Fold this sequence. Notes:
Layout: H1 2-25, H2 32-57, H3 64-88, H4 96-100, H5 112-136, H6 146-175, E1 196-202, H7 209-217, H8 220-225, E2 228-233, H9 240-253, H10 279-292, E3 295-302, H11 305-312, E4 323-328, H12 331-338, E5 342-351, E6 354-361, H13 380-390, E7 395-400, H14 407-421, E8 429-435, H15 442-451, E9 454-456, H16 459-469, H17 474-482, E10 487-495, H18 498-508, E11 514-520, H19 523-530, E12 536-538, H20 544-557, H21 567-577, H22 582-592, H23 598-603, H24 605-611, H25 619-631, H26 637-642, E13 652-653, H27 654-664, H28 675-688, E14 692-694, E15 710-713, H29 715-723, E16 731-734, E17 748-751, H30 759-763, E18 772-775, E19 794-796, H31 806-815, E20 821-823, E21 845-847, E22 868-870, E23 873-876, H32 885-890, E24 898-901, E25 917-922, H33 925-931, E26 939-945, H34 950-957, E27 965-970, E28 997-1001, E29 1019-1023
Helix pairs in contact: 1-2, 1-3, 2-5, 3-5, 9-10, 13-14, 15-17, 20-21, 20-22, 27-28, 33-34
Amino acid sequence: MEEIVIGLSKSVVEGTLSKVKAAIEDETKLKLTVQSDLVFITGEFEMMQSFLNVADAGERIKNKAVKTWVRQLRDLAYDAEDCIELVIHLDPKPSWWRRLLILPCLPAVTLPIDDAAAEIKELKDRVEYVSQRNMRYNLIADFGSGANIKSAAVQLDLERRRLDISIPVEEAKNKGSLVIDLTELIPNTEDHPDLGVISVWGTGGDLGVASIIRKAYDDSEIRNNFQCRGWAKLTHPFNPLKILRSLLIQFCTNTSTGPPNRQGEALDADSLPRTVASEGQVIREFVNHVNTKRYLVVLEDLSTIAEWDALRIYLPDRGNGSHVIVSTQHFDVASLCVGQPHKVSEFRKFTPDHSVYVFSKEVIGAGDVGCDADDLIGRDTEKVELINQIDEVSCVISVWGIAGVGKSALVRSVYRKYLNDRTKDSRSYINAWVNVPSPFNLRELCRSLLLHMSSVPATTKQVAAAQLANLTNPIDLCRRLLSGDTRCLIVIDGLQSTQEWDNIKQALSFGKASCIILVTNELSVANHCSGRDQFVLNVKGLADDHATQLFNKELEKQHNPIVPDDMEEQTKLIVNRCGGLPKLIVSVACFLAKNVDWEATNSNFIQQLESNQELASVRSIFGWLDSYFHTCPDFLKPCIFYLSIFPPRHGIRRRRLVRRWIAEGYARDTDGNLAEVNGEDYLSRLVDHSMLATAGKAGTGTETGRQMAKCYVNDFFREYIVSRRMEEDHVFALEGRCSQTTRRTGRHLVIHGSWDRDENVFNRIDFSRLRSLTVFGDCWEPFFTSDKMRVLRVLDLEGVTEGLTDDDIKNMVKRLPRLKFLSLRGCKGISRLPESLGRLRQLETLDIRNTAISWLPDTIVKMKKLQYVRAGVKGHTSASNNATSWVSSCLSCRPVGDQAVGVEVPCGFDELTNLHTLGVIKATAAGLIELRKLSQLRKLGVSGINRKNHEELRAVVSGHGHLESLSVWLDKADKQGFNDRVLDTVDEFKRPEKLRRLKLCGHLEELPVWIQDLTKLDNLHVSKTPAQDPSLM
């Protein structure tokens, strides 16, 4: 996981650079010497950032010395960012007068700028030391010249090409000799009726290959399982007819009851039927044998894939368990003959340079489980959507999702149902399912498509088969078949890149009557292939009830499964840890059916999946995950690892997570978007990849990140993230009984409700680099905050209902001056915020929803960085079902019964110009006037609107350039009602064009007519009485 370390380091360095540059630009706060030091630091970090980009692309990160240097660099970047933030947020007011008050007999007073200058000087020295350490150990010296960088890039490209073909081989070496006898790969007919293809490849030539195959070929049990057998050694020039004649002779002599002919023995041509004389007769007789009998064919010394194409057309798959064994000296031939997906096993190692490997088809158990339309569990909605899209002509449908989520099973179920429905249709059509070969080979893909094609009339396929047998280029042949007006349904499974699709699309020129379904793991590939106007389906994990149903179903299939006494409890834990992935669920169910200790599997879940050979079928999921973490954007990696903070199945409010990412510096402002917009985008990506799931209801998986109010971390991904922690504890938790012997350190501390609250253990923690403190559970202890938490950015106490007092909040403000995120949501014991709150000059997020706080302190106006303020309490009132007829006929009406009570804000609130989310606040005439100056507001919630102050609210809303969400609670005491004129009495009123969400609660007579002119409005809630939940944004 070295790439993850690099990615996290790059993200930290990038954030540090932006902070340093911001400090340099703010010259009013800096001494000249500090300016010079920061310029030097900027240059050094830019060079370090360039090195990280190079190291991420090469093999150097695997060097232990480089890894150590990268870790030191990351720590330095964190410290630099903390120091620079101190400079950025210094009080800009001059403090020179303080020096004049110092008596000569007293020591000089140290001002904040002096402390900052000293820290920056020390920081500069550390940057120099890190840079010199790199030069001493020559870590990046050979990356200095352009030629070396180009050479490294070329070598990297060659290495990646080599890895594409050698990774399976290396895995086989690491696992040892998994195949003891070739006969293991030739199962009984009833177990695997499909045509089996086995490739035997020798890395150092053909030494020993023929004898390995001969042992299986002559095995008495194998001989009895096949009705006809034949062995052909390919010679040059290649003559397919000669090979077919040789095999046909052996078919007539090597029956399942007769003695086997040895390789090299003379074969009697008289063994052929007397009617076989011409070439055409040889082919017809051969085809008759392979179509009616179970056959075993050995093709020795296959040299090219063209030779395989020419012979494979005569070796049909009749579902009777026939097998073909190929020997070759070429890796790509061995791989392509078997097709995808396949597995590689090291059979025998003769010398260090010569090993024999066996390629065989990998049985896809979980991914294709329940392929029949009636058996597929939990996919009804997706099936309907997909079938409806197939009826569209000339379309490209992309189906994407993470590995193991069941994409292929879903598409195969729809594919089969669609073909069954077409049996009564007499119109011409062509359909085929093809797996994309890896590495990508267009010729092999087209050859496979032709071999698996079916058509009406059948002569279309027969003609294509004959042309393919005559060595016609399969690409040209596919183009002629698919570019016409014949209705086509083609499924292309396993697409890995946009370049692969571009090559396929350009070469085959699909006709106007073609429907192409693409199956891929990558969203970018799906969007590229389908474009903006086509259908893209994101397949997500199964809901809990469907996952449990699938698990139980697979468990019942096993013969006499072993189940524990507490099966229901263990099943729930296991199913949750499988994360809704069908492939994982089925594999684990089959494994547990033969194992009595389910609890051991639960406690070491990821380790079992990665190390137990009985669960080898799920390794592809880990392969995809490792690949995803290597290739995903660097800015997303810290966001993913941050998820391990939250306990399993813990509901996380969407905005809580996004605001925390912003406070940590993971989501930042860019040229095109605000940090919050970027954070919402990051969260949507994680939802799309099933890393986050909707909390509170069992959905179909179609909800997007921006639509869900609450989510939770997918249990499987959480287990995976925790298992991939970096060398130091990125996230460390206190739970249960903790030992005092371990000195804990890290950047994110989590206190669980199960922890025994041992203060001695707490005092042994190193808080010097702690960035966040999160408390889960009801109880709070005063010692949870410390003066040593000097760089703490995030304090999240949401839901702490016991032990937390107003005095605790006062102490927090004193001890934690660098907080950027403070959440006291649901802390019912808090009734007021201290006046010292204004000291939190860096605070960006303040959430005091559902507390007893009714007013904000005057000093809050000093917190110029505030962007997000959530407040308000609820008071119960009776519900009413009366609503306006206009709302009933046009939009949703939700009459509910709780009244929102906003907090009072102090004068001068208009100075907080960075606010973009504010609510719920209590309306006053003066307060509403000040709101006009908050031009960046995007979400606003106001309570207590009546006939006396409605014009001020109208002025706030009128023509607002950014407002997207507005929630208004009308004054309950205003018994006269509320009508259209309240917000629409002046001709100069301008509609807020960007308004997307509007919530009106109270005694309504009629709605403003301008609502119907809001073109972007997509969410309108109206209730006769104040709404139950004032969480408007």
